[in-house]
Design brief:
It is built from two helices and two strands, in the order αββα. The chain is an alpha+beta fold and 82 residues long.
Length: 82
Amino acid sequence: MGKSLKDKRSFTHCFESKLKSKFNVAISEIDDLNSVRFANFLVVSVSNSYNTLEKRLNNITEYINKTYLEVEIVELNRFNLI
């Protein structure tokens, strides 16, 4: 990411903006706000179709893995409110 909190915040802001615009999701950094090395995000998406949500989340994961080589997805949790 970078060597300072300023570098990290610049990266995370750009990262959030790109995911929001590309996938029409809500995203927020939720933990490790003062860590230079780590960032935890919550991504939220709503649909009336489970398959649509599953496909969208898979596309997001694939996009991150291909586009942001410096990012590692350590844990991925999905919650269904049905």
